[in-house]
Amino acid sequence: MENNKNTNQNREKQGENKPEKKDFKVYKITIIALIVIVGTLVFMLLTTYQSLRDTRVEKVEQIEYSDELKTELDSLMYEYTSFKHQHDSILHDKDSVIQHQAREVERLIGQQADYRRIRRQLDYLREVAQDYVVKIDSLYQVAEVLRFERDEAREEAAQIQDYASELEKDREELSTKVEVASALRATQISASGYRTRGFTGREVEMDRAGRVEYVRVCFTIAENPIAPAGTRNVYVRIAGPDEKILRVSDEDEYAFVHNQDTLQFTASKQINYQNRSKEVCLTWDRHMEYMEGDYLVSIFTDEHRIGETAFTLR
Q1: Mapping DSSP to helix (H, G, I), strand (E, B) and coil, where does residue 256 land?
Q2: Residues 28 and 173 in one domain
Q3: How far apart are CA 314 and CA 311, in angstroms?
Q4: How many of the other CB atoms lie within 10 Å of CB of 120?
Q5: Average pLDDT, stretch 187-205?
Q6: Are 214 and 295 in a shared domain?
Q7: Which range (23-27, 50-54, 173-177, 184-188) has the least confidence?
Q8: In whole angstroms, what is the distance from residue 54 CA to residue 57 CA?
């Protein structure tokens, strides 16, 4: 009886322990599941955080790349614009191509397009701009050479002009010297009053104004080997004490032109000059009473005044 009783008690105890073991197992599984879930969430959180961090880094890098590209584009366009302003007339036809490429690069930067694509566009723009710059620079150098040659030509022309002016001046001086040298010159000039004495007609020099019948002027035209030979007109002008010219009349036939002035002459004579010394005499007959005083005698040819002298009547 006691054995049966003990057996029943053991069974009751075993029946009581079995539910407890089952609950523990459930708790254990639940905890493990929670750990797995928490671990998964932590992993996902860490993965998401790393992804966000990587995305943020890429975004920052993208902004830095965009800023770098924009700065490079601005620098390139600034250099091009400065160059363009210096050579605007030459680059006018090519400017639209470069401006179009610059706007395309700005659009790609604004859209945050692929860095390599923007870099290719920017490199192409730089090549186009540099190609134009090289060409224009070559043209500019050629223009500088041409400008230098033009300035040299102008300087040479100015020097030639100065040289020509000097030659013309020398020619004029030489011509003047030749003209002066070739001019005739009267020497041994004498002028006096005369009258005829008695029935013999002997000529007597006289200085009494009231008794003078005529005035004779004699001179020698000097030898001049470079003067033109041939017929020459010689004129004598005698100015009285009242400074009036002794003359036949005021008509043109008793006048000649000297230095564009028309002058009345007292007496004239045509001679044949052959570069050798030649004695010439001209006479003025009295047409009225002579005045007392000094008389000025001037001798001319058609070209020059060749001598002067004076005499006095009392």
Answers
A1: strand
A2: yes
A3: 10
A4: 13
A5: 88
A6: yes
A7: 173-177
A8: 5
Q: List the CATH number of the domain containing 303.
A: 2.60.40.10
Q: Which run of H or E residues covers position 307?
A: strand 305-313
User: Element (H or E) spanning 283, and its range?
Assistant: strand 278-285
**Cα–Cα distances in Å, from 9 out to 17, 19, 81, 104, 231?**
13, 17, 107, 94, 190
Cα–Cα distance measured from residue 64 to residue 212, given in angstroms and rounded to the nearest whole number: 127
Q: What is the domain count for the chain?
A: 2
Tally Cβ neighbours within 10 Å of residue 246.
21
Query: What contacts 274, CB < 8 A, 6 or more positions away?
Result: 229
Can you give the pTM of this predicted structure?
0.48
Confidence of residue 280 (pLDDT cuts 50, 70, 90): very high
- Position 278, amino acid: K
pLDDT at 293: 96
Extract the tokens encoding 202. Answer: 């002997």
Classify 188 as helix, strand or coil: strand
Q: How many CA atoms lie within 13 A of 103 on its CB side?
A: 6
Strands (E), 110-166: none
Which residue range(s) make up the domain with 256? 186-313
Closest alpha carbon to 80 in 122, 111, 117? 122
* Domain end among 182, 208, 237: 182
Structure token digits, residue 90:
């030459």
150-168 b/e with 16+ CB inside 10 Å = b?
eeeeeeeeeeeeeeeeeee
Find where tokens 């322990």 sit. Answer: 17
Spatial distance between the Cα atoms of 299 and 283, rounded to a whole number of angstroms: 13
Residue closest to 188 by CA, chosen among 312, 294, 309: 309
Contact 221, 306 (CB under 8 A): yes
